[in-house]
């Protein structure tokens, strides 16, 4: 189900720091999708920039 969702997502993000390396590699191969890595200190700037870029 996650693979199908990744095909139609705007971007791929991970909600934990300790995601299995095999899973990271698999989702990083989805063409045309930006991968946003987990950052507990994030202030959502990266997400806002992503959607700003997508709206152009």
Structural description of this entry:
The chain has 56 residues and is mostly helical. The protein has one domain. It contains three helices and two strands, in the order αβαβα. Strands 1-2 form a two-stranded parallel sheet. Helix 2 links the parallel strand 1 and strand 2 (34-36). The longest helix has 10 residues, at 45-54. The termini are far apart. The model has no long low-confidence stretch (mean pLDDT 83).
The number of distinct β-strands equals 2
The level of helicity is 40-55%
**Overall average pLDDT:** 83
Largest sheet: spatial strand order: 1-2
Main β sheet profile: 2 strands, parallel
Q: Can you tell me the residue ranges where pLDDT is under 50 for at least 5 consecutive residues?
A: none
- Overall number of domains: 1
Shape, per Cα inertia axes: flat
Q: How would you spell out the order of helices and strands? A: HEHEH
Question: What would you report as the Rg, rounded to the nearest angstrom?
Answer: 12 Å
Helix tally? 3
Describe the oligomeric state of these chains in a short phrase. Answer: single chain
Instruction: Name the structural class.
Output: mainly alpha
């Amino acid at each position: 189900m996650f693979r199908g969702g990744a095909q139609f997502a705007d971007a791929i993000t991970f909600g934990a720091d300790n995601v299995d390396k095999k899973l990271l590699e698999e989702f990083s191969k989805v063409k045309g999708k930006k991968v946003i890595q987990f950052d507990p200190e994030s202030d959502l700037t990266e997400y806002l920039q992503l959607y700003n870029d997508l709206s152009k």
